[in-house]
């Protein structure tokens, strides 16, 4: 029973204390005056009566009512019902105002009313929440007062305060206050269920489903929630509703449904809360950053950015929302029905309220079901103590990752839930029933919303019944005040009177006395055992979290353990990887622990070393995947096992498994230990009471315990049941029995605490106690650092291997370990003992024991540690030695490392097959390379060898990483090394490698990567380790080099000054002695020229034959051969200079004084003297003035290269010559000379020299244009279009093409020939690259003829029409310049040159692009992010865009040159992009450069001689380290590769050749690509290294020599499809869609490493074959011929060679078998080609002018493909004769040729497929005569064909060799030819018949038989 009202209070406006604007309230009267003992009077009521503040108002307001809630210090809630009305009083401000009238001017218009109204509140304070009853009672009191009823107010209040009603139990009580009123109060049946009226339904109406769910989750996860409304009662209702839906959890934080304005600072409290505030204060709530604000009036919920609300886990959230919408909006479902039911109204508010609450109850049933199975009961007497095992609960629900549930379980509300509902013996309610009996139903129905609705309706009914047990009763009779008295007439309302407190007190005393005499009401409490409901076990299976095919996996685990204990170690080793993979699954882990359990006898299992290793490894792997929470209880089951398995180390020394499994998070997690401790305590306490009840039960339960995974469940059931039973009996026991039980339980807990102190010290003290784990972990530590070290011997230590201990500090360190472990255990002991009620004496005893336990344990560990170090180390795979090059030496011997897999998936087995990586082996550092060689960790591929290596010079990035290998040793440090040969080594040093050794390795690597000087690179130091760097040269030659390098600069200066001084007669030295073309430095120009005339003009005729080979070295310097080939002038002196030669070879730079980075000999216009050149050169950057590097043999247009102009030079260059200046300034004169220079170049062009005048088009009339045949027009794109693409986008087209700022249009660029020659019908066309299957012209603008016929036509892009855009004259010289360089220059209208401004890619761009490209092709770690896919990264690198730009510019230049204009490429410093463009242009325009010799010459001329800075761009020395690696040359090679792909028949070399160069240009194996210019090469004396003098013939110094030698041996560099056309100009497509990623970037061969060091690969293969030979004699088992080809492991081109390589290899091996001298492959190949041509000629058919065409579906543009099907029955054959195109079309034949091309791909008639042929007599069919026939044996088609005569084309018949059974000598039969010996007859037996043949003589017959026989055996 409880009082309905504890206090009645009257609160009024305090007139005395009114401050400025704010008034105050004060308590006028309160009854009773004394506080009740059980319920003190709450403070601060006056604040809550007027939450907005006490104010006087000018007009009377209507009475109001609301309930606010106050919480006292014991967290009891007091409901304060406030009834407020307004009373009139004279305005207290008026008199004051009058007094001050004199002092201040009053504001006019602000008339103070004479009477104001003050609020007065009647307040009821109660602990019960009966809102309606309170409203009625207070209303009645007000009515009595207002209507002046005859009842005294004291009586009403006295009755109110003495009214007592039951708290719960479903009774009803009628009360009356003695004013003729009557009310019925119904109490809820069960007190624990909240009463909500219809507040929940209102809340959902105000805010909506999603918003309320947000608030619900926020309240459960402890966020701050603030309600806003202008109605107080709504605030209270909303708060009440939120608490109601949280049932069965209770809200335990600040709860203030109505917060007074004065207390608003409460909102900034750091703790969670639910608070309501009037909307009046909305502005004050704006700056709250972490508060969720729900506006009830506006229906919004605002969640701040910094707040993250975890929502319900997924299927639940969806189901809850569905159920709620079915309750609140039942029409939603039917909304789309064609015939909706007449009415589906939602239930009434009161019912709806309960339905919503039922949904939440159902939700909690889902969330918490099975919670009772995770309770640990640790004390039963005197009070039950219960703990919840959170990890197990989450683990069984498979919700460990779920944020929401984690937070709820960690929250205060849930802690309260456990302490309230945990005890097993207590009254139960609806929720307990739901958990116990309806979980199964919930689970089955959760997927069908209608069944769920039915369930919810049932629950709602129970909730409704609980609140309204007697729904029919409603007998309220309460007096309401008469129609509220006239507001205007204040006289008729008296003030609320002062009550007589004595009278009221009498009522109260009287009632109290009556209560004392009444007999006590005894209400039996209905306690009972709380049922637990179904266990959680099978839920996991339902969600499918158990791994598929787990039965097979468990079998593997069981077998492996059996093998280990049966000592079958080999079997166990094979199974190990599978077991370790299986242990990722939970079922397998549980299975492992069960299996191990069976091998433990009397708590001990002694193993030998290897068994111990395996068991420990499996334990580690099992723990590896456990989280630190141990939610599946795996660590818990292993805990007893790690103290059971052990091995004997020596006399009396045993090592237990726990010393090897300490490296896991779980052991440092306090919660894990607590859960373990509590579950053990529970088992012991259960045993304690079971023993008391009798023995047989315990046996039964023990049987249960061992019966598999369900054991845990049954045991737990027993514990809670026991506890419930004991709690029931407790009151019946005597005092002695009670205290005995308490004591027994207490000592049980105590003994367990001691046991756990020991256990914890086992797992927390590392074997090597000098290393501290706890300190290092800092408590629980970060999850990243969990390694999984299984280290059984030498370092059986711990994580802290980085703590190197100094010998002197051992003791300090170990005591440190001891201290931290002691502290950890003490914390644990304090916590669990306090919770489980251990006495203080015992606790003190524990604290004294713990340090001793730890110390003892440390001592035993020391002994174990000592012994374990003596164990023989684990057998590790032996280190494999790498094969080294001749002259390559080891710098550091192999260090054991693990090669970790990186982001490339092939080797890790991600794409199928066992993983090759990670692998274990060693890393070797040599003078040339960094090599890893080892074997994969996976035993399935354990016999394969994995090799990864790259040249040390190509290392681009080195970074330290720390790696933890999954199952094996913990490895502390590693390195990630990236190379620009697209290789990545991620290595982790093994623990046997000391960290300082790793550091030494890094230092050596850096030293080798960045030598002080280029002479420190491998190419120079090869073969000379330990010696000083000496050039291998005889003394006198060295001398001349030295003088050169010393005197070079000095004498250069002298030479410039002294032009014509003749010295002693010059005697040309022999070529060997000449270290430069002028070794006598002081000779003047003239004499040099004369002498050279005799010495080298006819470069081949004059030189002695012995020296000719040496000559090839000179080429590197002046490339004279090429200049002569191009007809670009000869070396001759000025007197005999031939005037008709437009160009000459100038020696002006012979001393490298004009330009350091140019070669010594340069081609310049004939008319320009050397002195001019020196002046011109100053205008250009790096003095790189324009020189000629190539001439088009047909149009005689020339290609020039130079650097960009200096900034000052630009303006000077473009200034008009007649600038007003006093006398010609320096700038003017140079710009004039420059102009002269340009003019000289232009005048060298034949088209310019023609008589028709300079401004005409030199014979370019439109008639001529039209003669250019149509195929040409189709073929070539508009140059205008090309120009526009090259120069940039649409918007800047009109201006960019202009001559400077004036914006005049450029001239028409014609595409026809300069002169109309006799060849006009067959134009000098090039070809465009093939893109299979797509129309070729689609990429270009279709208006083809416009620029040729110069019609006007509007541009498709809206620019000016083409004819305007290109002026009617072609420039003779185009200068390709950098857009940024050419701003602001002017040009003279009549100059014949045009500037084409383009945007160049900066070197920095190339560098960054390359970095990104490497990361895309060789990622360092696998990633699943969609933004990091290969193609996305490739796109972001922009590498393809850069290639596109370079190719585009090159194609433009090719077009211009081909149309007869000269081009000068003048970009950046003239050594990067310029070189790329110039080389590509020559490659595209001149077929010579597409051969081996030509390409070599091109690279030597344009890249080496013209000074591309290889050393600088390759960051080859310490000096250039900072500039970083910039692969300009690689970019060029990639462009060549792209062209090669589009024109596979135009190149003599293969793709491999390009890759070979790409690899070796950075490898520093050869000297070719070292140094930045010829000048530097001469200085070092590497330009002419004579071949004959090499000490070590193995060491090639030039990459070209190496390629030549290798090319003689093997066709690896040769392109079998090489079939060039004469004078072919290539025009590749350059769009990004046509470019392919070069496979050089992505391929790798793990079996042998990069294949570009050929001799290494060959030796490796020989060794491998040698190893395989010994197996041959063992012929018992047939050896499989199958070989698996692994894309990333094998070299595909070697394992699966192409057909021709295979045939050449077979030829070689046959020659070797027959003992014939091997023929060079090239000779064989040439012979075959010659034969083929000869046959083709005999046939009088046009053949290809080249070799076999390998690819059958290669459609080639400029070759026709006729298809010829002969009309005989022999079977079709296809003619692929490809001749020079005669038709005008060039579209390829669509569709692939048919498969019969495999036979007749190369020929048109059978005759070409004749393996053997001749005349034979053949006997006809029955009775027919013998006849001579011409027989042809065809191996290709496997036929024997015969013809009437040799010339006959029609085949008479065919014998298929497939049907032939035998060939035997025959006998002459009737009618056989005469005079032929008997042996000339032979028979051919087929499956159908026997053919009789007769040859001319017996040798001939023998030949035929042999040939046919060999054909048969081949098949």
Per-chain topology:
Blueprint: E1 2-3, E2 7-13, E3 25-31, H1 45-49, E4 64-71, E5 77-90, H2 94-99, E6 115-126, H3 131-146, H4 153-162, E7 164-165, E8 172-175, E9 183-186, H5 199-207, H6 209-220, E10 224-229, H7 232-245, E11 254-256, E12 273-278, E13 291-295, E14 300-302, H8 314-328, H9 331-334, H10 349-368, E15 375-379, E16 385-388, H11 390-397, H12 403-410, H13 412-421, E17 425-426, H14 430-437, H15 439-445, H16 449-467, H17 501-517, E18 528-529, H18 539-543, H19 550-565, H20 569-582, H21 586-598, E19 605-607, H22 609-624, H23 634-642, E20 645-650, E21 653-656, H24 670-693, H25 695-705, H26 711-729, H27 735-764, H28 773-777, H29 810-835, H30 840-870, E22 890-899, E23 919-926, E24 929-936, E25 946-951, E26 955-961, E27 974-979, E28 983-989, H31 995-1009, H32 1018-1021, H33 1035-1057, H34 1085-1096, H35 1105-1118, H36 1120-1125, E29 1143-1146, E30 1162-1165, H37 1170-1177, E31 1187-1191, E32 1198-1202, H38 1207-1214, H39 1226-1243, H40 1246-1249, H41 1262-1267, H42 1270-1275, H43 1279-1287, H44 1293-1296, E33 1306-1307, E34 1326-1328, H45 1346-1349, H46 1362-1365, ...
Parallel strand pairs: 10-12, 10-13, 11-12, 19-20, 32-38, 33-35, 34-39, 36-37, 36-38
Antiparallel strand pairs: 1-7, 2-3, 2-6, 4-5, 5-6, 8-9, 13-14, 15-16, 17-18, 20-21, 22-23, 22-28, 23-24, 24-25, 26-27, 27-28, 29-30, 31-32, 40-41, 40-46, 41-42, 42-43, 44-45, 45-46
């Amino acid at each position: 029973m409880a009082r309905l009202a504890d206090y009645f209070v009257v609160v009024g406006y305090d007139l005395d204390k009114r401050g400025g604007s704010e008034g105050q309230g004060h308590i006028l009267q309160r009854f009773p005056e004394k506080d009740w003992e059980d319920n003190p009077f709450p403070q601060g009521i006056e604040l809550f009566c007027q939450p907005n503040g006490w104010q006087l108002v000018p007009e009377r307001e209507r009475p109001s009512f609301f309930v606010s809630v106050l919480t006292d210090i014991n967290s009891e809630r007091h409901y304060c019902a406030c009834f407020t009305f307004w009373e009139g009083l004279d305005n207290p401000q008026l008199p004051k105002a009058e007094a001050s009238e004199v002092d201040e001017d009053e504001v006019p218009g602000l008339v103070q009313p004479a009477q104001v109204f003050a609020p007065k509140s009647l307040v009821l304070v109660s602990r019960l929440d009966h809102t309606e009853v309170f409203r009625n009672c207070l209303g009645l009191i007000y009515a009595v007062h207002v209507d002046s009823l005859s009842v005294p107010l004291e009586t009403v209040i006295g009755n109110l305060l003495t009214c007592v009603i039951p708290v719960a139990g479903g009774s009803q009580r009628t009360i009356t206050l003695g004013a003729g009123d009557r009310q019925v109060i119904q109490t809820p049946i069960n007190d624990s269920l909240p009463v909500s009226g219809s507040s929940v339904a209102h809340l959902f109406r105000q805010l909506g489903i999603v918003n309320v769910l947000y608030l619900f989750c926020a309240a459960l996860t402890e966020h701050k929630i603030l309600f806003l409304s202008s109605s107080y009662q709504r605030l209270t209702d909303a708060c009440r509703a939120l608490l109601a839906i949280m049932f069965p959890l209770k809200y335990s934080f600040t709860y203030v449904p109505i917060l007074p304005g004065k207390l608003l600072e409460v909102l900034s409290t750091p703790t969670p809360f639910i608070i309501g505030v009037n909307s009046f204060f909305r502005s004050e709530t704006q700056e709250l950053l972490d508060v969720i604000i729900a506006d009830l009036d506006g229906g919004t919920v605002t969640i701040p950015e910094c707040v993250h609300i975890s929502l319900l886990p997924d299927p639940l959230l969806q189901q809850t929302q569905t159920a709620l919408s079915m309750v609140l909006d039942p029409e939603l479902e039917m909304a789309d029905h064609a015939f909706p039911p007449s009415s589906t109204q939602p239930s009434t508010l009161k019912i709806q309220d309960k339905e919503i609450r039922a949904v939440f109850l159902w939700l909690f049933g889902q969330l918490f079901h099975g919670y009772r199975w995770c309770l640990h009961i640790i004390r039963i007497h005197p009070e039950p103590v219960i703990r919840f095992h959170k990890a197990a609960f989450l683990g069984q629900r498979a919700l460990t990752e779920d944020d929401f549930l984690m937070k709820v379980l960690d929250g205060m509300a849930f802690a309260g839930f456990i302490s309230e509902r945990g005890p097993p013996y207590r009254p139960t309610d609806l929720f307990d029933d739901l958990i116990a009996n309806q979980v199964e139903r919930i689970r089955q129905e959760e997927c069908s919303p209608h069944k769920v609705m039915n369930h919810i309706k049932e629950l709602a009914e129970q909730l409704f019944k609980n609140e309204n047990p007697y729904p029919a009763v409603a007998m309220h009779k309460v007096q309401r005040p008469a129609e509220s008295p006239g507001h205007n007439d204040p006289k008729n309302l008296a003030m609320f009177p002062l009550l007589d407190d004595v009278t009221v007190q009498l009522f109260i005393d009287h009632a109290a006395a009556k209560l004392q005499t009444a007999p006590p009401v005894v209400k039996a409490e209905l306690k009972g055992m709380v049922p637990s409901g179904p266990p959680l076990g099978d839920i996991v299976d339902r969600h499918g979290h158990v791994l598929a095919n787990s039965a097979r996996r468990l079998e593997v685990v069981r077998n492996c353990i059996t093998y280990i204990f049966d000592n079958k170690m080999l079997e166990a080793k094979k199974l190990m990887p599978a077991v370790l993979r299986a242990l990722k699954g939970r079922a397998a882990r549980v299975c492992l622990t069960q299996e191990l359990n069976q091998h433990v006898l009397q708590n001990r299992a002694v193993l030998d070393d290897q068994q111990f290793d395996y068991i420990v490894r499996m334990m580690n792997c099992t723990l590896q995947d456990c989280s630190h929470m141990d939610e599946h209880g795996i660590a818990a089951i292993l805990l007893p096992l790690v103290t059971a398995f052990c091995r004997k180390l020596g006399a009396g020394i045993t090592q237990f498994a726990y010393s090897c499994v300490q490296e896991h998070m779980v052991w440092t997690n306090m919660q894990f230990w607590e859960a373990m401790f509590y579950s053990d305590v529970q088992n012991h306490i259960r045993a304690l009471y079971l023993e008391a009840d009798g023995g047989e039960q315990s046996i039964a339960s023990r049987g249960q315990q061992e019966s598999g995974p369900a054991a845990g469940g049954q045991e737990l059931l027993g514990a809670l049941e026991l506890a419930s039973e004991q709690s029931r009996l407790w009151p019946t026991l005597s005092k002695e029995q009670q205290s005995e039980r308490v004591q027994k339980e207490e000592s049980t807990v105590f003994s367990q605490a001691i046991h756990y102190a020991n256990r914890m010290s086992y797992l927390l003290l590392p074997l090597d106690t000098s290393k501290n784990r706890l300190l290092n972990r800092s408590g629980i530590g970060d999850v990243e650092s969990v390694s999984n070290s299984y280290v059984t011997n030498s370092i059986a230590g711990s994580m802290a291997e980085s703590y190197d201990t100094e010998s002197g500090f051992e003791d300090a360190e170990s005591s440190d370990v001891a201290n931290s472990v002691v502290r950890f255990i003490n914390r644990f002991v304090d916590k669990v003992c306090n919770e489980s009620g251990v006495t203080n004496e015992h606790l003190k005893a524990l604290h004294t024991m713990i340090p001793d336990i730890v110390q003892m344990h440390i001592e035993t560990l020391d002994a174990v540690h000592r012994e374990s170090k003596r164990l023989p180390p684990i057998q590790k795979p032996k280190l494999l030695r790498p094969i080294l090059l001749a002259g390559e030496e080891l710098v550091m011997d192999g260090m054991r490392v693990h090669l970790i897999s990186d982001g490339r998936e092939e080797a890790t087995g991600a794409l199928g097959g066992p993983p090759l990586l990670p692998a274990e082996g060693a890393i070797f550092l040599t003078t040339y390379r960094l090599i890893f060689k080892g074997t994969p960790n996976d035993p399935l591929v354990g016999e394969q060898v994995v090799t990864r290596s790259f040249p040390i010079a190509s290392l681009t990035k080195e970074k330290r990483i720390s790696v933890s290998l999954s199952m094996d040793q913990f490895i502390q440090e590693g390195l990630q090394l990236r190379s620009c040969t697209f290789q990545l080594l991620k290595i982790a040093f093994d623990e046997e490698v000391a960290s300082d050794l790793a550091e030494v390795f890094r230092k050596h690597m850096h030293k080798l990567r960045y030598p002080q000087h280029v002479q420190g690179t491998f190419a120079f130091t090869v073969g000379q380790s330990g010696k000083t760097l000496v050039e291998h040269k005889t003394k006198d030659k060295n001398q001349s080099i030295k003088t050169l390098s010393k005197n070079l600069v000095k004498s250069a200066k002298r030479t410039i000054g002294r032009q014509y001084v003749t010295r002693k007669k010059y005697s040309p030295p022999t070529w060997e002695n000449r270290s430069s073309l002028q070794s006598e430095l002081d000779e003047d120009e003239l004499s040099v020229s004369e002498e050279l005339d005799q010495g080298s003009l006819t470069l081949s005729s004059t030189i002695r034959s012995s020296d000719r080979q040496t000559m090839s070295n000179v080429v590197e310097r002046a490339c004279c051969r090429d200049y002569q080939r191009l007809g670009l002038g000869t070396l001759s002196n000025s007197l005999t200079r031939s005037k008709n030669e437009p160009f000459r070879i100038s020696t002006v730079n012979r001393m490298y004084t004009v330009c350091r980075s140019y070669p010594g000999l340069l081609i310049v216009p004939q008319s320009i003297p050397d002195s001019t050149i020196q002046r011109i050169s100053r205008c250009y950057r790096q003095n790189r003035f324009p020189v000629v590097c190539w001439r088009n043999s047909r149009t005689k247009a020339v290609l020039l290269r130079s650097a960009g102009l200096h900034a000052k030079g630009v303006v000077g260059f473009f200034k008009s010559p007649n600038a007003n200046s006093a006398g010609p300034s320096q700038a003017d004169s140079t710009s004039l000379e420059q102009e002269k220079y340009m003019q000289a170049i232009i005048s060298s062009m034949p088209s310019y020299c023609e008589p028709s005048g300079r401004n005409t088009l030199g014979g370019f009339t439109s008639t001529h244009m039209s003669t250019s045949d149509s195929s040409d027009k189709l073929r070539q794109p508009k140059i205008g279009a090309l120009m526009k693409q090259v120069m940039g986008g649409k918007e800047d087209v009109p201006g960019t093409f202009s001559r400077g700022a004036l914006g005049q249009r450029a001239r028409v660029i014609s595409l026809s020939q300069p002169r109309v020659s006799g060849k006009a019908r067959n134009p000098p066309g090039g070809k465009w690259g093939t893109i299979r299957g797509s129309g070729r012209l689609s990429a270009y603008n279709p208006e083809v003829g416009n620029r040729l016929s110069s019609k006007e036509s509007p541009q498709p892009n809206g620019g000016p029409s083409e004819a305007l855009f290109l002026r009617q004259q072609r420039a003779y010289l185009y200068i390709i310049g950098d857009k940024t360089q050419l701003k602001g220059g002017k040009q003279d209208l009549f100059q014949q040159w045009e500037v084409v401004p383009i945007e160049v890619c900066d070197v920095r761009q190339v560098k960054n692009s390359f970095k990104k490209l490497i990361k895309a092709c060789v990622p360092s770690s696998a990633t699943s992010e969609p933004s990091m896919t290969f193609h996305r990264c490739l796109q972001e690198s922009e590498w393809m865009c850069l290639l596109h730009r370079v190719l585009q510019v090159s194609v433009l230049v090719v077009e211009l040159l081909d149309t007869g204009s000269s081009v000068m490429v003048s970009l950046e410093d003239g050594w990067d992009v310029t070189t790329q463009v110039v080389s590509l242009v020559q490659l595209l325009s001149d077929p010579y450069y597409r051969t081996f010799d030509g390409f070599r010459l091109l690279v030597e001329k344009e890249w080496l001689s013209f000074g591309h800075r290889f050393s600088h761009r390759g960051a080859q020395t310490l000096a250039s380290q900072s500039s970083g690696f910039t692969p300009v040359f690689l970019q060029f090679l990639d462009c060549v590769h792209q062209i090669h792909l589009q024109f596979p028949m135009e190149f003599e070399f293969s793709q491999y050749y390009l890759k070979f160069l790409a690899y070796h240009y950075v490898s520093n194996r050869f000297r070719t690509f070292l140094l930045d210019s010829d000048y530097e090469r001469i200085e070092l004396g590497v330009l002419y290294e004579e071949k004959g003098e090499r000490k070590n013939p193995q060491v090639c110094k030039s990459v070209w020599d190496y390629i030549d030698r290798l090319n003689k041996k093997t066709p690896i560099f040769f392109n079998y499809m090489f079939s060039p056309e004469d004078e072919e100009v290539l025009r590749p497509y350059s769009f990004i869609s046509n470019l392919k990623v070069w496979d050089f970037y992505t391929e790798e061969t793990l079996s042998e490493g990069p294949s570009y060091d050929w001799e290494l690969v060959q030796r490796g293969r020989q060794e491998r074959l040698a190893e395989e030979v010994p197996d041959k004699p063992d012929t018992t088992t047939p050896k499989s011929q199958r070989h698996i080809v692994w894309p990333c492991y094998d070299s595909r081109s070697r394992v699966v060679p192409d057909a021709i390589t295979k045939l050449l290899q077979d030829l070689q091996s046959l020659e070797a078998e027959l003992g014939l001298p091997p023929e060079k492959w090239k000779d064989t190949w040439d012979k075959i080609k010659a034969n083929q041509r000869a046959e083709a000629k005999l046939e009088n058919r046009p053949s290809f002018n080249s070799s076999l065409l390998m690819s059958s579906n290669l459609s080639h543009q400029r070759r026709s493909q006729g298809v010829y099907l002969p009309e005989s029955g022999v079977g079709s054959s296809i003619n692929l004769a490809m001749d020079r195109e005669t038709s005008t079309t060039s579209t390829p034949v669509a569709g692939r040729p048919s498969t019969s091309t495999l036979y007749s791909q190369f020929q048109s008639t059978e005759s070409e497929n004749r393996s053997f042929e001749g005349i034979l007599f053949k006997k006809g069919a029955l009775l027919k005569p013998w006849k001579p026939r011409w027989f042809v044996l065809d191996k290709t088609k496997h036929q024997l064909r015969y013809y009437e005569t040799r010339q006959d084309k029609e085949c008479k018949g065919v014998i298929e060799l497939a049907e032939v059974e035998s060939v035997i000598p025959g006998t002459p039969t009737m009618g056989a030819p005469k005079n032929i010996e008997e042996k000339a007859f032979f028979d051919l037996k087929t499956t159908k018949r026997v053919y009789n043949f007769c040859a001319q003589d017996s040798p001939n017959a023998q030949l035929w038989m042999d040939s046919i026989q060999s054909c048969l055996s081949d098949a």
